Amino acid sequence: MLDIAEELNRWAEEGRDFAVATVVAVGGSAPRSPGAALAVDSEGTAVGSVSGGCVEGAVYDLCLQALRDGQTVLERFGYSDEDAFAVGLTCGGVIDILITPVGADAPGRTVFAAALSAAARGEPAAVARVARGPAELLGRALLVRDRSYEGGLGGHAELDRTAAAEARAMVDTGRTGTVDLSEDGSHCPGGITLIVESSVPPPRLIVFGAIDFAAALVRAGTFLGYHVTVCDARPVFATRARFPEADDIVVDWPHRYLRRTATDSRTVLCVLTHDAKFDVPLLEAALRMPVAFVGAMGSRRTHEDRNRRLREAGVNERELARLRSPIGLDLGARTPEETALSIAAEIVAAQRGGTGVPLTGSGTPIHRDGGERGAVAAAA
Asked: Could you tell me which residues come within 8 angstroms of residue 297 by beta carbon, excluding any fewer than 6 positions away?
């Protein structure tokens, strides 16, 4: 739901009634991850997607039904061998979807509105909803912001406290997924399944080196949803005119800026300067930080010389093994745009566990199960 927060927040502010269909769990080759959502308002306007097209029509109808009867339901969609044209995921996966009406008099309307407002403003927050459990609790919501929470799941008070603690842990890491608890709030699976959606500021992509390749990489990073910063010590190159799509442009020595700026486990660092006086002190710092990705541009000769200099600077082999250099996947790229695509592809592959090989003939799963993809629970 929070992946379409901006549009839904506008609907909530306008006082519209709407229903939200949220992916709760997936299995097999399902195209969308938990948290993906489709919303339909009372006039039939739709926004978002839960399956990339496979079951959108059926889910749209379920949203309209939820608006009419005010009932929250959990539905499962999967591939049908008996009828290839039946509503289902023709890609062979299974997907559980929670459909929740958010009418003007819905008990969770205030919580939904607050969650959507926080997500639309880019504030860290998490919303937990009952996706499986007693009928009277289904769809109940709890919002966690900072160290407090509002709303409730409608059951035992300890359930709210435990759910809030689980939600805080997930928002701290930017994760969305499911949590199994008992009705009394203990960590005994089987009673209640929560779908916890977290909203955190976008991850950072910091591009060091204000060159033509950087301009193309900025555009690719923006497309992938990163907050993109360009840093270069040369003011003549690090300008808004050269990088209009960048969120931030910093004129400073790269290693000095890296040490003073905020980074986390989702941050991606791309070093495009391929100049030892910039690269070595920058990478010496970067390779010792708990960031998601550190890559550096350069020829293989540059790579070998840079590694030698880094070893001389005291970087050990374990730290050096984190460096992705020469940066990018082998696409045969020549232009700045093609090179940016190559780099972006390696970033995605590194984060999602991809191999980078063509899917044709590979036999590997198309949609991999990662830590943020909830397993399909037992049918409700």
From this structure: 209, 213, 270, 271, 272, 273, 274, 325, 326, 327, 328
Contact (Cβ atoms closer than 8 angstroms) between residue 36 and residue 48: yes
Predicted model pTM = 0.68
263 closest CA partner among 292, 284, 230? 292
What CA–CA distance (Å, rounded) separates 316 from 334? 33
Within its chain, how far is the Cα of 16 from the centroid?
27
The span from the CA of 127 to the CA of 164, in Å, is: 9
User: How do residues 270-320 score in pLDDT, each as one tens digit?
Assistant: 999 988 899 999 999 999 999 999 999 999 999 999 999 999 999 999 999
Cα(187)–Cα(173) distance, integer angstroms:
20
Instruction: Please state, in angstroms and rounded to a whole number, the distance separating the CA atoms of residues 163 and 127.
Output: 10
Q: Which of 307, 356, 308, 301 is nearest to 328 (CA)?
A: 356
Beta strands in the chain (DSSP E): 18-27, 37-41, 46-48, 73-78, 94-102, 125-132, 141-145, 148-151, 177-181, 192-199, 204-208, 227-232, 248-251, 268-271, 293-296, 323-324
Q: Cα–Cα distance between 228 and 219 in angstroms, integer?
A: 9
Rg of the chain over Cα atoms, rounded to whole angstroms, equals 23
In angstroms, the CA 346 to CA 296 distance is 12
Tokens representing 232 are 């270069």
Check if the beta carbon of residue 295 is closer than 8 Å to that of residue 280: no
| CA atoms within a 13 Å half-sphere pointing along the CA-CB vector of 313 | 20
Sequence-distant (≥ 6) Cβ neighbours of residue 11 within 8 angstroms: 18, 39, 41
Helices 300-312 and 276-286: crossing angle in degrees, nearest 10, is 60
3-state helix, strand, coil in the chain (%, to 5): 30, 25, 45
Taking the alpha carbons at both ends of the chain, their separation in whole angstroms is 21
